[in-house]
Write a structure and sequence with these properties.
Helix content is about 20%, strand content about 20%. It contains 3 helices and 10 strands. The longest helix is centred in the C-terminal third of the chain and has 19 residues, at about 135-155.
């Protein structure tokens, strides 16, 4: 089936912006400004050389409402009536900053609508599952374990290694993190595994969308 074309924002198809004009289906090689040959060559480099990065773990959110298994909806009045609003949960993640030598699978600037590089852990409305009998204790336990993740990974340099599945890198045991002792693997970290097991990523390999 022929790939759907998106309407360009600019009359000149070569003109770029911070949003980036879409030439093909979003996420396609055409949209990413890559040829098949360039994609395969970069994929080979990623698999064989890894990706040098710096890791960041933001502070644990303070808003207790984010951790409710069923978010409390608030009514927002409007002249014509109003609507019910439920605050969306936040994604707990390890942010990834590319360093020199990082291979990107795109030749256009990242759009504002596209998330920055990150390794997802779980959503805030899922961490109550750390204790299946008491949701509040589950959140407290998650907060403690998250603090240990920050101590271990925040600000650390790493080389991410693995294999490509489409435009996602599935991390392997070859991934190394600055300061980790022999046998301490990001992919086997018990705290990372706990957060992944608590949420919607429990059946997926540790991954980085490129």
């Amino acid at each position: 089936m022929e790939m759907k074309r998106a309407i360009l924002r600019h009359s000149d198809p070569s003109e770029s912006s911070s949003e980036g004009s879409v030439r093909g289906e979003e996420g396609s090689l055409e949209d990413r400004r890559l040829t098949q040959e360039a994609f395969e060559e970069r994929g080979w480099r990623i698999r064989n050389e890894g990706l040098p990065v710096q890791l960041f773990v933001d502070e644990f959110p303070e808003d207790d409402a984010l951790f409710e298994p069923r978010p409390h909806a608030e009514f927002v009045p409007e002249p014509q009536g109003g609507y019910w609003h439920e605050p969306p949960p936040l994604l707990l993640r390890i942010r990834v900053k590319p360093l020199q030598g990082f291979v990107k699978l795109r030749d256009r600037r990242r759009r504002h609508s596209e998330a920055a590089y990150h390794i997802p852990l779980c959503h805030t409305d899922e961490v109550h599952r750390f204790d299946l009998r008491d949701a509040s204790l589950g959140v407290q336990q998650a907060r403690r374990f998250y603090g240990r993740l920050r101590e271990r990974y925040d600000g650390k340099q790493a080389v991410l290694r693995g294999w490509l599945h489409g435009v996602e890198m599935r991390l392997s045991r070859g991934t190394t993190v600055e300061g980790n002792r022999m046998g301490e693997l990001l992919t086997d970290d018990p705290y990372i595994r706990m957060f992944r097991a608590a949420g919607s990523f429990h059946e997926q390999d540790l991954q980085l969308a490129l």
